[in-house]
Amino acid sequence: MGKPYAEELDQLPATYRWALTQRLDKCLLRAVASMADLPLLAVGSGGSFSSADFVASLHRTHTGKVSVPMTPLAASAAGIELRQTALVLLTAGGKNPDVLGLFRNAVLREPRRFVVFCTTQGSPLANIAARHAFVDVVETTLPTGRDGFLATNSLIATGVLFARAYAEVFSTPLSLPTSWSQLLEHKQNCDGQKELNGRCSPLWEKETLLVLHGPDTTAAAIDLESKFCEASLGNVQIADYRHFAHGRHHWLAKRAETSALIAFVTPSDESIAAQTIRLIPKKVPTLRLDIPWSGTVANLAALGHVLAIVGSAGI
């Protein structure tokens, strides 16, 4: 699996700073601009599916167009008319059979705009894509090298680079915090991971973890479920606050003794989150993660918290 996860967490501040200051690839800016009037399919597997949801959210926010994340299998099987659609294929290594198969399937359907984004240079996917003049290939190399088993630094770098690209193309203000610790709201000289481990420890005594989120933290909830499954850390159920209220709350009526809960709360979620959390049985260990940002910044911050939560569960 290559790398100790704790080492990857230690590299996140440098990765964030690099992605924040790196000169944006002209091909990425051109690709984002070319998709402005189109609906978007954002495609990825594993950790890249979390990135796909993040990019889809950016596209909806900036263009008002329909934009959805899909796995390679779903995108290959869907009977969507791609000639009037943009497709972004996100991958860390560019060699997974899923993404290679999706590329071969999709390129024959001639998407109106086709963008391949890979955080490894010279990948098999990029080499195949380069044979097609209508495909925009964006490659970047992270200063931290490749991820280990779980998507970590590539996930954050992809999110920051796309957020900056959309903001620049659409002349939208983007006030990203200047450091990783500020993004996560860690107090100066405070061991954020150590504090989080203490807050999380009651959760890990339970069999099932329920994760509640709002529209600004969907990618984080998806990523938490993905990492818990891929690393075999535990059972996870995710739902936004209204979806949870529609019937999923009945799980706690039957299985409160074996369940715990994490709630991502942004300013726009405050009212519904507070009302929901008040109704959670007291016997259910609950971690409320308050994120003082909104929109894209909240999404990035929540993803950062997820990486730390996974580290806590791993310990």
Describe the structure.
By secondary structure, the protein is of the alpha/beta class. It has helices at 5-21, 26-34, 47-63, 72-77, 97-108, 124-129, 153-169, 180-183, 192-200, 218-230, 241-248, 250-255, 270-278, 295-314; strands at residues 40-43, 67-70, 86-91, 113-118, 135-139, 208-213, 235-240, 259-265, 286-290. The strands form two sheets. A five-stranded parallel sheet has the order 2-1-3-4-5, with helices on both faces. A four-stranded parallel sheet has the order 7-6-8-9, with helices on both faces. Helix 6 links the parallel strand 4 (113-118) and strand 5. Helix 3 packs antiparallel against helix 10 and helix 7 (153-169) packs antiparallel against helix 14 (295-314). It is globular, with a radius of gyration of 19 Å.
| Euclidean distance between termini CA atoms | 17 Å
- Averaged pLDDT: 93
| Alpha-beta content class | alpha/beta
**SS strand fraction:** 15-25%
> How much helicity do the residues have?
40-55%
Number of helices: 14
Largest pleated sheet: 5 strands, parallel
Uncertain spans:
none
- Described by the principal axes of the CA atoms, the overall outline is globular
Number of strands: 9
Strand order of the largest sheet: 2-1-3-4-5
What value does the Rg take, in angstroms?
19 Å
Order of helices and strands: HHEHEHEHEHEHHHEHEHHEHEH
